[in-house]
Each structure stands twice: as structure tokens, then as C-alpha cells.
Design goal:
Blueprint lengths: L14 H6 L2 E4 L2 E4 L4 H10 L10 H19 L2 H12 L2 E8 L2 E8 L5 H16 L4 E3 L8 E3 L12 H17 L3
Antiparallel strand pairs: 1-2, 3-4, 5-6
Helix pairs in contact: 3-4, 3-5, 4-5
């Protein structure tokens, strides 16, 4: 049986932002991929996390906790968000090891069902270390998506130029021409 396709309009962002993007707007209505365990399975497959542990209600609860923590950290109060992200991170740690191929960092989790949630929280720390000013929310007023700005000059404003950017351009054009 083929995997269920990912219905989200923006995928492929770093894991922390990809988790945030499991909520999106469609025709004025908020959609939530993580409304059930089946949606969690779609996200896990899309994020390359499928197969480690079968998705279940406990994993869904932990992933939703991580998503809320990240949403608070990115869109709300950094102080409140830090405590919530830290609570998720408290369920694991990184063990550094030397292998014949070189050094590796391996997550050690209190319970494997925390894996996807913990990895998303850990990824957020990596993004903060790399370029915190490149973590962005789409500039379109009705969009709830997030992205990591990889543009050369760091001026990307839209989750997608083809959707939100185009809507904004069309709206500006309409405003200019309607009074003519």
C-alpha cells in the first residue's frame, strides 16, 4: 500500500520548522496534519523519521507538546518558549562517540516515543546556534507557516513566492488599479 501523500503546502524545512508547519491555512480554515495518529505517520515519513518506532497516541501527545513549545518559542515569548522547549529536551541527551568513521552524536532518550519530539526541539537549538535571525514566519497576514531563510542576502519574506508572495503582489496590484 503506498504511503499517504503529505498534504502540506510547505515541506522540506529544517525539522523544528517542519513540525510547526504541520498546521497551515487552506481557504481560510486552519488545517492540522497532527489531528490523529495517521497524520503523525504522514509527518514522520515526510520528515524521514518513519520506521524507528510505530506512531501511537503517546508519540502524538509528545510531538504536539514539542510543536506547542516551538510555536511559543518562535511566535510568542522566548522566555516561556525556552522553558517549554527545555521540558521536551529533558527527555533525552546527546552522547558523543568515536566510531571508525569519526565522531558522532547519538541521542539517548528516556523513552523512544519521545524521539521525534526531542529531535525537533534539538534541531531548534541548532537553528538558534546557526542563524537565529533566519528563522522566519511568512509575511502574509493569513499564513501561519515558518521557514529558514537560506537566501543569499537574508531577505526572504514568504513561505512560497508562488503562493503567499504572489497573493501579496496581486493584492498590491489590485489596490493600485481599482482607483484608476
Amino acid at each position: 500500500m503506498p504511503a499517504t501523500p503529505d498534504p502540506r503546502p510547505l515541506t522540506g524545512e529544517p525539522l523544528a520548522l517542519d513540525l510547526l508547519n504541520t498546521r497551515w491555512m487552506r481557504e481560510g480554515s486552519l488545517q492540522d496534519l497532527l489531528a490523529d495518529v495517521d497524520g503523525l505517520a504522514v509527518w514522520l515519513d515526510s520528515a524521514g523519521l518513519g520506521g524507528d518506532h510505530a506512531p501511537d497516541r503517546r508519540m502524538l501527545r509528545h510531538v504536539l507538546e514539542a510543536r506547542e513549545a516551538l510555536r511559543t518559542a518562535v511566535d510568542g515569548s522566548p522566555q516561556e518558549g525556552a522553558a517549554l522547549v527545555d521540558a521536551v529536551l529533558g527527555h533525552g541527551r546527546v552522547r558523543i562517540s568515536l566510531t571508525p568513521q569519526g565522531p558522532v552524536e547519538l541521542p539517548e532518550l528516556s523513552d523512544p516515543v519521545w524521539g521525534p519530539a526531542w529531535l525537533a526541539a534539538r534541531n531548534y537549538l541548532e537553528l538558534l546556534t546557526t542563524a537565529p535571525d533566519r528563522i522566519r514566519s511568512c509575511a502574509h497576514e493569513s499564513c501561519v507557516l515558518h521557514f529558514f531563510d537560506t537566501s543569499r542576502n537574508g531577505t526572504r519574506r514568504w513561505c512560497s513566492m508562488a503562493t503567499c508572495g504572489n497573493r501579496a503582489k496581486a493584492s498590491r496590484h489590485y489596490a493600485r488599479t481599482k482607483d484608476i
